[in-house]
Amino acid sequence: MAVDVLLGLQWGDEGKGKIVDVLTTNYDIIARFQGGPNAGHTLEFDGIKHVLHTIPSGIFHKGAINIIGNGVVIDPIIFENEIKAINNLDVEMSELLISKKAHLILPTHKLLDAASEKAKGKNKIGSTLKGIGPTYMDKTGRNGLRVGDISAANFKERYEKLKQKHIQILNFYDFEYDLKELELKWFESLNTLKEFEHIESEHYLHNAIKTGKNILAEGAQGTLLDIDFGSYPFVTSSNTIAAGACTGLGIAPNKMKDVFGIFKAYCTRVGSGPFPTELFDEVGEHLGKVGNEFGATTGRPRRCGWIDLPALKYAININGVTKLMMMKGDVLSGIDKIKVCTHYNFNGEKIDYLPFEANDGLTPIFEELEGWQEDLMSLDNLADAPKEFHDYISYLERELETPITIVSVGPDRKQTFFR
Ligand code: GDP
Ligand code: IMO
Ligand code: MG
Fold it and tell me: Does the predicted model carry a pTM greater than 0.85?
């Protein structure tokens, strides 16, 4: 029996979907614990490239049980589209169960997200506009509607009440909208949601633990987007960290074993907010181009920069990471000198941690490592990788004091090495 957690250590898009898919063969259950369709998790295998938003990344493995946990927020329209997209593939989907306690994203939540961003102007968060913030606000405000409410006799009534409240706020924002069609589609889409079994996922998972099943909790977003520990207010609205797996699934901390922390060999960020090692030169452009750094959910170009060790150490500590996974090492091929941020200059002082004032401008202090020219994507064995690549991995392991157990050199399942 084991419950392991897999989560992002940076600003999301580290490659969580790919690795959950790769690791699913070791688990009986894959359970998403937070976030919603703001996530875009990309899987590539057998010539298929597929992006998941709400559905766990174990869905293409026969026999795996996938659970959307109570900590997740669900947009029925996007969920229906995800199911349709999977049905259009030549691969069977495995079992999918949904927590009755997962909250619903209403059409008006999406409108509120847009209205709030518009009102913020140039200070906007850069939200994915999927209604995430307003839905979690209604959850903590104790007004939300949950999957388990759909079949209740007074569901429509409760929906109308919440909608009216939202309309008042939209009027306050002076925000123009057209709700009719969106609403119609939303109610239609509930039928797809109803086709899946709605469960009390905490009980289900407790039983699974008791009977010796292996469970992998799949995170969304990344530690630096966490509502408490990220670069607030430029964050998402849920706890993306390991503790989020406890609250988002109802699994106690003493049941957790490994915490897998995923990071890119460099950094990316989509949306607004501080990014100390961001590059505005041709190297940044190169990373974006070679790494194909465009948001899997919104298509927006991702900002690119060098790896940031103080930020990674912070993320490792907050999550209690036991094993690291380094993604997209292949993207660094062809760069002569690779920079690694080891410290920041903050108000004239050299510091090695991420301070509260992170949004006020930290100047990164870099160490330079030798790059390599060789293409890594077609490697059959990690041992055949250039010495400089091995040196980069060893350097990071030493600095981060945590073993790097998976090295990924391409988007496909097969381009994955275990160490
Ligand atoms: P997630 O949100 O953490 O699941 O990550 P995304 O799917 O949003 O973004 C990761 C992107 O990098 C996707 O397009 C993946 O197909 C791709 N990818 C994952 N691992 C690698 C890798 O090692 N090398 C390269 N070149 N691409 C990768
Ligand atoms: P995955 O799971 C990268 C970012 C948005 C924005 C901020 C708030 O694919 O790694 P929200 O819509 O949550 O209110 O947006 O968070 N963001 C992500 N960035 N990957 C994600 O998910 C993200 N989900 C949200 O760009 O800056
Ligand atoms: Mg993503």
Answer: yes
